[in-house]
Write a structure and sequence with these properties.
alpha+beta, single chain, two-stranded antiparallel sheet, 10-stranded antiparallel beta sheet, Glucose Permease (Domain IIA)
């Protein structure tokens, strides 16, 4: 058997033929190594081309992710702004329901707790700790947006967005395990949570706006037949000043005992105008023991308002007054510790918190 290969080299111009003997095994090895080198070079070239392409795609995805995150932050700011607007509408709508009688509540509970009440008073009167006002109730837009990540609808939206992202990356199956392997893939899947959060909150707000629109529409229809009632509802703060004592239990400055304060004390300088907060008829104007100069207005519909410690009264019994009309001036008459207006609202003879009616 032949154990060698002979390679002959024939020059074009020179004489003589040069020959080389190469062992057969070495020749096969050289051929194999050449083929292997060509194959490896092809694979490396293909991988290098794929890497260049992947680098380009990664740059594009990084830019896209940055833009998406900025857009999500913008959406979140819009939602927060919209939520604040809705909250203001909610408070206004609830106040309209109260003053119009469209919704009945316990108005003898104070809207605002008296911050001047001592800690000892709060301990002795446990009921003041349990007061839940109408305006701090449930079903507000903030309440509906809480704990969205525990909601089944949120989880469903998140799964849908993850499936969509997985499809874009060609990971239709098994992505629940592989999405954590690559930092870039993990970053892309993290967007699913943001997308779901936005969609969930947006759908809640959209539905809440529809409900609120229907509620305000019903209230508007109800108020069409109650214009006279609104004109007779004391919605204005009768004097400009600062509230020095709120409706609710407090320590009496004279007896130093716990006593129910049945109105608002509005501190102001002597002579500050006191205006009628609504249309009505004067049922009393004069002096009353403990209250000094005193005015009482009957607004109809069982609603009365009281103004005490005035320096002077500018109306007489039987006068018909309109909202915004001067009825008296702030003073310091009667049992008073300083210049202020004592303002009460009574419904069917029972004192209620005036803050349930004040809109300005």
């Amino acid at each position: 058997m032949d154990r060698y290969f002979t390679v002959m080299v024939v020059p074009e111009r020179e004489k003589g033929v040069k020959s080389f003997r190469i062992p057969k095994l070495a020749f096969h090895a050289i051929v194999f190594l050449c083929v292997l080198a060509i194959f490896a070079l092809g694979i490396l070239s293909y991988d290098y081309w794929k890497i260049l392409r992947q680098v380009h795609q990664n740059k594009h995805l990084t830019l896209e992710n940055r833009q998406l995150k900025e857009q999500i932050q913008l959406f979140q700011m819009k939602i927060n702004t919209l939520t604040s607007d809705i909250e203001r509408i909610e408070v206004f709508e609830k106040k309209l329901r109260v003053i119009s009688g469209f919704e009945k509540i316990d108005q003898t509970n104070p809207v605002i707790k008296d911050e001047t009440t001592p800690e000892a008073l709060k301990k002795t009167d446990k009921n003041t700790e349990k007061i839940q006002t109408f305006f701090n109730g449930h079903d507000t837009i903030r309440d509906k947006l809480k704990d969205e990540k525990k909601n089944d609808k949120y989880v469903e939206l998140k799964d849908l967005y993850e499936q969509k992202i997985a499809t874009n990356f060609g990971l239709q199956t098994g992505y629940n395990f592989t999405k954590e392997w690559s930092a870039l893939t993990k970053q892309s899947f993290a967007l699913a949570e943001n997308f779901a959060d936005f969609d969930y909150k947006f759908n809640i707000i959209k539905g809440h706006v529809k409900e609120l629109e229907l509620s305000v529409h019903d209230l508007d229809q109800f108020l069409l037949d109650r214009q006279s009632f609104l004109r007779s509802t004391p919605t204005l703060l009768p004097a400009r000043g600062w509230v020095t004592s709120y409706y609710g239990p407090r320590i009496s400055p004279y007896s130093n005992r716990l006593k129910m304060h049945e109105g608002l004390d509005i501190g102001a300088t002597i002579g500050t105008p006191i205006l009628s907060p609504a249309d009505g008829t004067i049922t009393f104007s004069g002096q009353k023991a403990g209250f000094g100069y005193f005015v009482q207005i009957d607004h109809g519909y069982g609603i009365e308002s009281v103004y005490a410690h005035n320096s002077s009264n500018h109306v007489r019994k039987g006068d018909i007054v309109s909202r915004g009309q001067l009825i008296a001036k702030v003073g310091n008459t009667g049992n008073s510790t300083g210049p202020h207006l004592h303002y009460e609202i009574r419904v069917n003879g029972t004192p209620v918190d005036p803050f349930y009616y004040i809109l300005d």
